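subagent[fold] <- orchestrator: predict structure for attached chain, return tokens only, no commentary.
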Amino acid sequence: MRRSLIVIITVITLFSAASCISVEDIALDSAADILTSGSGGMNIFTADDDPQLIADALPLALKLYEMILGSRPDRADLQYATGKNFVMYANAFIQTPAGMLPDEEYRKQEKMIIRSKKMYIRGRDYILKGIDLTHPGFSTAIREKRLDDAMLMFTEPNDAGMLYWAASGWIGAFSCDPFDFELANTLYIPAAMLLKALELDGEFSNGAIHDILIQIYSSLPYSHIQKAAADAPLTIGKFQKEYYKSNNTGDSPGDKALFHFNEALRLSGGLNPGTYISYATSISVKKQDYNEFKDLLGRALSISASDVPENELVITIYQDKARWMLENAENFFILDIEDY
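subagent[fold] -> orchestrator:
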């Protein structure tokens, strides 16, 4: 009788423990589902119009993502969402504000830039882990310099997001530290990823890929694009040649930057201030065309955030940057802008 009672108690204890584990698993899976859903996750932040409120709240949200991810590392969608949010945070709330600090705060600026680089790499690496989960062997192919093999793994439009955000984190990290030669020597990889994303879904996020390609063709050494095409002739090389030919785009990097600027405007309906800022900072400044610079930033400021409520936060941040650029235009131009 005593032995039977012990067995019964043991079974009940094990069942209770298993039930608790099951409840915990359900809770973690539900949380992961919410964080990666189209209607949940970071969407509650991007629709807000108070950047400071979001800047204060995001660190806790990012740690929540990492906490759930620690229990669900095999979920590619959660790796992607976590990495994407770190990349966005680095850009919107660390690197961008750092760039607008006055000269006398250069030490604070330096610390913020170092931190933003770390956040970009952290985000990129999470997304690369997600890519390896959905496309096993990707990182190995990259390390072994089999770029064509790596790019051939991506065949679906849904792959465009992971490629775009991983590449954005990669390039963002380099923009924080152009003297990081390890990053500099690998820039052809994110360039290839962006072109592959463009092939898979050229309309991704209302022209986001075109936005970043404006900067790629105007700011990065063209050799990185050429290397991407040369190292992956069956994928990137072939696509790039056919894509620009079919769109009657000129051969120069400037021609391609202008093409992507127009495509980004078309796909966003002209409602993304970031497109105007990208072209103004990369092309107008390079040409030292202050009138074009001023016109583009004016167009960015004319956008009403209420027209795109789901992106109100991003629009607010970009417009704050546009105002700062206009107020500090002398930082970008050699000529005396008062003459204009």
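orchestrator: received. Logging for downstream: DSSP finds 17 helices and no strands in the chain. The two ends are 99 Å apart (CA to CA).
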